[in-house]
């Protein structure tokens, strides 16, 4: 088969300057590390740094979204659930240690709304820091594993999956609101003072929390990057593009999708756990349908399939949200809506693809003949 | 026994509201595959139409009767406009329509806030709909009966349109084979727009119905939209009967659970029940078996 | 290795009351290059769908000592049955190399999966060679020419290490040169695999088939060598009755085939 009949002239783009390519990723990573760990803490006030810490938590969620949605095509509209599970697991532990530090048996809100003097049985293990920390990641992963297993196994996909995951976010936030005596209800778990023995009122300790969050973000980005370039990452893209075809090659696509979904859930859980000391609160309003869509949209605006794009998009949208919504609430809502419409509708690759789109427009060469039934 | 009957009636009336909302989605989501998050805001548009009408027409009964067709037209026109402006560009990316229409939904909510103010408003119900009818020990609220009747009427109307009119045949043809419909001389773009018009218009009608049982506010649509989508998912994308059965079944389940537990637990249990149901029927209640790959 | 045979007995597939495959018996010997022909709607593709687990069927399909019916798609694939589709179904956003590497990897362990591909696995290199795609290996598969996409699909089956290949209209829409090249490729592949080809193109079938089964209305109408089948009166009748029907896949490039069909 050495026919060259329809082979277009061999214009294979040479792997452009392999040396540069090899160092591009580590260099970018190092640049990010310098910015986050070196420059930001020096350049920003305590207040702004703590805001950045919050945005970086959303960026951690976006890393998972980029994996599950950008690469795997799974529209994860319920990431708030996993952020919530991680956040509540952490907040329960911190509320218990706060109460213990004040010489009280029960967290403050339980004394107000609770029905008795006893701690609910399912709160008890969270007094143990190791258990609580493990739960911040394992609990979201377990929920994702069960739901994902049931849903993917039966080939429920696309829009159906998106709606189910959204319904999950609605159900959890409504459930939390209904359990005021044991979860703080609408208020959530608030007024968290200590973080493993460090007072969160102290700006120095707030900075420490920031460093932990930034380091975790960088670590998870490295992990996600490894997954992207691995054989698994290639397979995940294949499943996104043609699930049936992958099945005919002898793989079970359900398992491939499950891994991405569970990993993304674990990342969101970790983000929730870090969100609590950074912001001092976790509540149903932070994890319901609206914030859950927000996580996906942040990633979409930046570029769902590009790790850096998704992270920057999440940070930018969160920043714009808290900066502009205070000063111009009405104008911001219009702008936000318009941004989503334009970014998702007309720039599906997100802002990360802007350069590529512009370049392609300038040098429109047309794709090689792909046959009539392409 | 009385309790059971009363709860069932409550469930059926919850189901009727769900059905009214889901009916429009069976067209736009079920038939066209578009996840329109702004559907909730079309409900809101219908509700505010009722509110505005009542300010100019003093009789609550007359304004309600005028509101029904008018809300259908207002919401339908908004839907057709949305389809023409955005959605028709996104038919190849159905999941992205979800995000795009979410952006539209945010803007429409803010628009309502700017025009009508953020606080909820209320309309007066006509006298005839404020009472109850008692049958033995069971009481039926008139407004709930009205909504039930309205929902069933809409189902009937939509069925007749889809089954027996040339428009209905065209809609079904486009759904089943877009390319073939196109080469058969059907203007598929136009059919899409009309389908969207009807689906969105039904949301407007649902909005009128909702003014009878609750306040009107900028975010009223978001409370219902996910449940309505679940109705279509569970019902399957085949025919209307899936949505009808599912809406009433979920309504009754919800109401029975709320009675025996709490509202919030009921939500969770309903979702678990839905996931369990999809284990048994992953494509929903009614589907067509075909040879296609997807 | 000369592939594995396939035995089909009384296979039936029904869609909502319509019987697409109606009691088909087939015996395909190891190493055969079998063509399945028949008018549109004869049940050819549905037959392949049933064998590969895509649609539910009754009867029996035996392959390598196992009954395939009721097994999930991926299990059947792992037993050594691979297939292509009428429209080339490759992963358009991945490169040629990535496509082949994925096809070769169903048995990989977790550790291998989580690492980057360091070099080109030997079977993948061989398949690139066989299909003539070595030069294009770093191209996104989506930009390949139509014929090349089909070859890539066949290459994917080769690295998948299947014993039986089921190809659904592999030369539809191909130019004459591509068609001949594909035929040569199939001939080479059938030296150590069993190959079943669904095809409309009679010219192509005459040049490369080792044996032929004619399907009509869900049943096997005739079976044998090319000559035997062509001489069969029943076959002539079916094709005569359909001679006026345009065959969209075959007409533009092979007017010869159409006239000879009649």
Automatic annotation (TrEMBL), chain A:
Keywords linked to the UniProt accession: Cell membrane, Membrane, Transmembrane, Transmembrane helix
Chief place where the protein resides: membrane
Single GO MF descriptor: branched-chain amino acid transmembrane transporter activity
Keyword Kinase attached: no
Membrane-crossing segments per the record: 23-44, 56-82, 131-152, 159-178, 208-228, 249-268, 274-298, 305-322, 334-358
Membrane topology annotation: Multi-pass membrane protein
Listed PANTHER family: HIGH-AFFINITY BRANCHED-CHAIN AMINO ACID TRANSPORT SYSTEM PERMEASE, SLR1201 PROTEIN
Name assigned to this protein: Urea ABC transporter permease subunit UrtC
From TrEMBL, chain B:
The keyword Membrane is assigned to this record: yes
Membrane topology listed for this record: Multi-pass membrane protein
Parts forming coiled coils: none
Annotated GO MF terms: transmembrane transporter activity
Keywords associated with the record: Amino-acid transport, Cell membrane, Membrane, Transmembrane, Transmembrane helix, Transport
Subcellular location: Cell membrane
GO terms under cellular component: plasma membrane
Spans traversing the lipid bilayer: 12-37, 57-82, 145-162, 194-216, 228-252, 259-280
InterPro entries per record: ABC_transp_permease, ABC_UrtB_bac, BCAA_transport_permease
Claim: Transmembrane helix is one of the keywords in the record: yes
Family the entry assigns: Belongs to the binding-protein-dependent transport system permease family. LivHM subfamily.
Name of the protein in question: Urea ABC transporter permease subunit UrtB
TrEMBL record, chain C:
PROSITE patterns linked to this entry: ABC_TRANSPORTER_2
Protein's UniProt keywords contain ATP-binding: yes
Biased composition (Low complexity): 250-262
Any Pfam family matching the protein: ABC_tran
Alphabetical UniProt keywords: ATP-binding, Nucleotide-binding, Transport
One GO location term (cellular component): plasma membrane
Protein name: Urea ABC transporter ATP-binding protein UrtD
């Amino acid at each position: 088969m050495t026919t060259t009949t329809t082979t277009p002239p061999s214009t294979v783009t040479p792997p452009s300057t392999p040396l540069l390519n090899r160092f591009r990723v580590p260099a970018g990573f190092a640049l990010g590390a310098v910015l986050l760990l070196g420059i930001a803490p020096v350049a920003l006030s305590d207040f702004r740094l703590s805001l950045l810490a919050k945005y970086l938590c959303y960026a951690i969620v976006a890393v998972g979204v980029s994996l599950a949605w950008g690469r795997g095509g799974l529209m994860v509209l319920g990431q708030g659930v996993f952020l919530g599970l991680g956040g509540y697991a952490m907040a329960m532990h911190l509320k218990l240690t706060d109460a213990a530090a004040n010489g009280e048996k029960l967290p403050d809100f339980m004394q107000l709304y609770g029905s008795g003097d006893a701690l609910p049985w399912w709160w008890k293990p969270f007094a143990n820091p190791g258990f609580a920390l493990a739960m911040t990641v394992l609990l979201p992963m377990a929920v994702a594993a069960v739901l994902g297993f049931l849903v993917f196994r039966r080939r429920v996909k696309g829009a159906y999956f998106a709606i189910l995951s959204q319904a999950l976010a609605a159900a959890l936030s409504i459930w939390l609101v209904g359990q005021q005596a044991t979860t703080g209800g609408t208020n959530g778990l608030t007024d968290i003072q200590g973080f493993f023995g460090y007072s969160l009122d102290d700006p120095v300790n707030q900075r420490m929390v920031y460093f932990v969050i930034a380091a975790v973000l960088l670590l998870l980005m490295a992990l996600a990057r490894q997954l992207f370039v691995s054989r698994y990452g290639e397979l995940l893209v294949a499943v996104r593009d043609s699930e049936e075809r992958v099945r005919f090659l002898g793989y079970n696509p359900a398992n491939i999708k499950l891994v991405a979904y569970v990993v993304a859930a674990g990342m969101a859980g970790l983000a929730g756990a870090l969100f609590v000391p950074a912001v001092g609160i976790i509540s149903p309003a932070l994890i319901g349908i609206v914030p859950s869509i927000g996580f996906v949209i942040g990633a979409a605006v930046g570029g769902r399939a590009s790790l850096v794009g998704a992270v920057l998009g999440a940070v930018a949208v969160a920043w714009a949200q808290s900066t502009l919504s205070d000063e111009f609430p009405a104008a911001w809502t219009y702008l936000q809506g318009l941004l989503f419409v334009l970014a998702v509708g007309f720039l599906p690759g997100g802002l990360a693809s802007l350069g590529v789109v512009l370049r392609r427009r300038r040098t429109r060469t047309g794709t090689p003949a792909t046959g009539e039934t392409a | 026994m009385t309790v059971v009957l009363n709860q069932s009636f409550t469930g059926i009336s919850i189901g009727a509201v769900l059905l009214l909302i889901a009916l429009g989605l069976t067209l736009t989501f079920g038939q066209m595959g578009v996840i329109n998050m702004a559907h909730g805001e079309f409900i809101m548009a219908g509700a505010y139409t009722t509110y505005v009408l009542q300010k100019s027409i003093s009789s609550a009964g007359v304004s309600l009767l005028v509101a029904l067709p008018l809300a259908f037209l207002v919401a339908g026109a908004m839907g057709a406009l949305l389809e023409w402006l955005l959605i028709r560009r996104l038919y190849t990316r159905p999941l992205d329509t979800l995000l795009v229409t979410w952006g539209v939904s945010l803007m429409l909510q803010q628009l309502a806030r700017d025009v009508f103010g953020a606080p909820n408003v209320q309309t007066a119900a006509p006298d005839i709909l404020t009472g109850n009818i008692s049958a033995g020990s069971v009481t039926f609220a008139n407004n709930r009966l009205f909504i039930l009747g309205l929902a069933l009427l809409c189902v009937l109307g939509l069925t007749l349109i889809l089954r027996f009119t040339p428009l209905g045949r065209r809609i079904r043809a486009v759904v089943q084979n877009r390319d073939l419909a196109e080469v058969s001389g059907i203007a598929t773009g136009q059919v899409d727009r009309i389908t969207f018009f009807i689906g969105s218009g039904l949301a407007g009608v649902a909005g009128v119905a909702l003014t009878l049982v609750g306040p009107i506010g900028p975010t009223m649509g978001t409370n219902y939209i996910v449940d309505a989508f679940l109705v279509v998912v569970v019902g399957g994308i085949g025919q209307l009967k899936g949505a009808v059965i599912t809406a009433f079944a979920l309504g009754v389940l919800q109401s029975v659970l709320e009675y025996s537990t709490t509202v919030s637990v009921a939500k969770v249990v309903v979702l678990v029940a839905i996931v369990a149901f999809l284990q048994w029927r992953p494509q929903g209640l009614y589907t067509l078996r075909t040879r296609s790959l997807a | 290795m000369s592939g594995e045979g396939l035995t089909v007995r009384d296979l039936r597939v029904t869609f909502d009351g319509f019987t697409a495959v109606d009691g088909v018996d087939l015996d395909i010997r190891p190493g055969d290059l079998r063509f399945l022909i028949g008018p549109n709607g004869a049940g050819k593709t549905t037959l392949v769908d049933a064998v590969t687990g895509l649609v539910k069927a009754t009867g029996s399909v035996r392959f390598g000592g196992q009954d395939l019916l009721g097994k999930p798609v991926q299990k059947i694939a792992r037993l050594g049955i691979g297939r292509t589709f009428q429209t080339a179904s490759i992963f358009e956003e991945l490169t040629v190399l990535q496509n082949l590497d994925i096809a070769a990897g169903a048995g990989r362990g977790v550790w291998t999966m989580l690492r980057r591909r360091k070099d080109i696995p030997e079977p993948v290199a061989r398949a690139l060679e066989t299909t003539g795609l070595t030069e294009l290996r770093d191209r996104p598969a989506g930009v390949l020419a139509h014929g090349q996409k089909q070859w890539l699909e066949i290459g994917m089956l080769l690295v998948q290490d299947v014993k039986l290949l089921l190809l659904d209209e592999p030369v539809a829409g191909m130019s004459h040169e591509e068609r001949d090249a594909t035929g040569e490729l199939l001939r080479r592949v059938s030296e150590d695999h069993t190959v079943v080809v669904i095809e409309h193109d009679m010219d192509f079938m005459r040049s490369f088939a080792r044996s032929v089964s004619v399907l009509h209305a869900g049943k096997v109408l005739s079976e044998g060598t090319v000559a035997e089948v062509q001489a069969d009166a029943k076959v002539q009748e079916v094709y005569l009755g359909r001679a006026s029907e345009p065959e969209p896949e075959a007409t533009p490039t092979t007017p010869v085939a159409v006239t000879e069909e009649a």
